Queue: 2 jobs
Job 1
Amino acid sequence: MTDLALHGGTPVRGEPWPAWPPPLDDAQRRLLLEVAQSGRWGATQGPHCGRLAERFAALCGTPHAVALGNGTLALFVALKALGVRPGDEVIVPAYTFVACATSVVLAGAVPVVVDVDPSHLHLDPAAVEAAITPRTTALMPVHLAGSPADMTALLRLAHEHGLAVVEDCAQAHGALYDGRSVGGLGDAGTFSFQSSKAMTAGEGGLVVCRDPEVYQRLWSLCNVGRRIGGAWYEHPEVGWNLRLTELQAALLLPWLDRLDTEIDRREAFAARVTALLEEADIGASVVPQPPGTTRDSRHLLMIRFDRPLTTDEAGFVVEAASAEGVPLDNGYPPLGELAAVRKSGARVEPYPHAAEASRQVFWLRQQIMMADPAEAADVVAALSKVLTALRTWPR
Ligand SMILES: *Cc1c(COP(=O)(O)O)cnc(C)c1O
């Protein structure tokens, strides 16, 4: 027996963690009410979706942006606007959310699932290079957990092989690579405002880009094939209504003003967990960032155990940590093992590092990092109890 809360012991923590999303602030409440009362709820009627796009473009240092329904559609339209066609191959990382593959499928192309770097778990440039064929037309680096992918190496490969680069920034609002905002490094950058993200309106998405023609295609794809400045019922291209609503933009616009403060708060908490884990030497450490990270937006804190766990052991860790009052997430299974990805006709390259990560890495979600850094001690105390019990588990 142990002193685990799971076994009837006293939990490390009784207090709840900060809620996600955070409570509405005054600016959100005012703008939401203003939009609701105006009756101009659609993006073709009001200015806020356009303003949100402008502010994101400024944030990312790109001239253009389009707001739309979600992050999956953002990846899809970015691929389409950059000229990815049916039969093309698009390289995606093996440790990421399913949408990275299914957005490629939606564009009629073939996802090529490539392994991640064993240290930081972002797309591995060497594995990317080995997977490039004459049919490869695009790369999709994911800025996983809030830290930017190894963009210098990936952009060099893209340049050498003439590939388009779509940065998936769904987890990295406000992150910086070498002092520059993610999203503005490749040909297009996509964001998500789904409920679990660092800025949310329940759902939502956005694409930023530099090239004016790419922008026109993006805009048209999201606006039923219309042309910017064209006649309302002209529809020169095939496109869909993928627009965000003004009510969602009213939640997101004021959020941009507090994003930096929230990132700083999560950074302080993450730094404390990292230091305490090093000190405690209990067999768990924070996954390091790729080279070039100058600001991690700290969407998730990835914590690596010092050995791979079985499925049963991982289940025990999640249950025991939750009982201690410190919820942990088991993280992604390797992308290439999902039935959806196998059925899609994806090409899956060997993925030993993604497989290892799926058995060895747990996530601490962003709302926990919104707590006072002093409370980081609870995370380490809970991990310490769970890791001690794991040594003799299942006894
Ligand atoms: C959330 C997420 C997406 C998809 O965004 P949705 O808005 O949920 O469609 C894509 N990629 C990554 C890495 C994500 O975390």
Job 2
Amino acid sequence: MTIEAMDKAYVLPTYARNYDAHFVRGENAMLYDAEGNDYVDFGSGIAVCSVGHGNPRLAEAICDQAKKLIHTSNLYLIEPQARLAKRLAELSGMDVRTFFANSGAEANEGAIKIARRYGTDDEGNVKRYKIITLEHSFHGRTITALKATGQEAMHTYFGPFPDGFVYARDIEHIYDLIDDHTVAVMIELVQGEGGVQPMERSAVQKLAAALKERDILLIVDEVQTGIYRTGEVLASNLYEITPDVVTLAKGLGGGVPIGAIMTTLKEILKPGDHGSTFGGNFLSTRAALEVLEILESHKTSGELDHMMLLFEERLKEIARIYDRLFDKEVGVGFMRGLRVKEGFDAGEIVKAAFDERVVVLKAGRNTVRFLPVLTMTKEEMALGFQRFIAALDRL
Ligand SMILES: *Cc1c(COP(=O)(O)O)cnc(C)c1O
């Protein structure tokens, strides 16, 4: 039985999987299939492989930790968990404590629980419970995170959902939806799945101040934007805001599953209020510590900002030259997109690129999305764009 046949027979078909290549190994921004063909990865496993594939330092840290201890449960002290929480507070400059989960959706679930707890008095009486999110947002696939996601098409089959989620068309519309029951606003600073849409900086800063004044929590979903994806540790650092809650996941573990909820509400949860069996174990937190160390020096050396600038310039040039296909270039840092013109399909461009052996992604609002590994080299970038252009020339 072939692996493809096994996959088709035994794995639940929830993904529109691409069976054209079967990747077996990687090296930084390069992926290699079973036949030995190389691909340039401008997707990094959907913003996850932040330090590239096969990173020797990350591999060494994981191996070393695996030989010592992988897991003991949260009943006992976990050294790398404590160190990681400290590092996240230092690097972000936020006065926070962190809870560790295993995924983005799970981190958002925890953030929503924090908001609900904030809206409930100590006797358990619900005072405020509504959470405002944005249209075109994406917050995850669990029932509550799905309901928080402002895309009605994703709510068709799985109801009934928890109450209390309201969707704003854009940041300005949030003010119209606030009422006496509103406890929190949850947003992405750059919408990812919804089509690489950065929020306007001044509008975000104004919102943060207005919410603070009304004692409404600001939750920023940084599952995709966090961990240097936009050039700073957090997109919140880039926007110069201090949210009450920040969630992380994708890039944090370099591929090892981990989620995190950072909050300035350091006393909000008591023993027993929340928990996770796997969350924050030795393996995932040790991996994340190594990822942060690698990326911090990549940032400090100036290399990250330099590469992000080159990438942006190249993409803008492509948008200009191929204006028959693209309206414009969008995004921030290494979270970029090309908005595809009416009459063309982003999916077709993604497929043509794959045929030329460069991996790019599709996002909502007909966008070709680029989420390169943060440690990409100039040579890898040049090869990736050379192949992408070859694909565009065939369309
Ligand atoms: C990917 C993503 C999630 C969901 O993360 P999972 O790890 O798949 O649960 C949530 N929010 C944002 C902004 C994301 O990009």
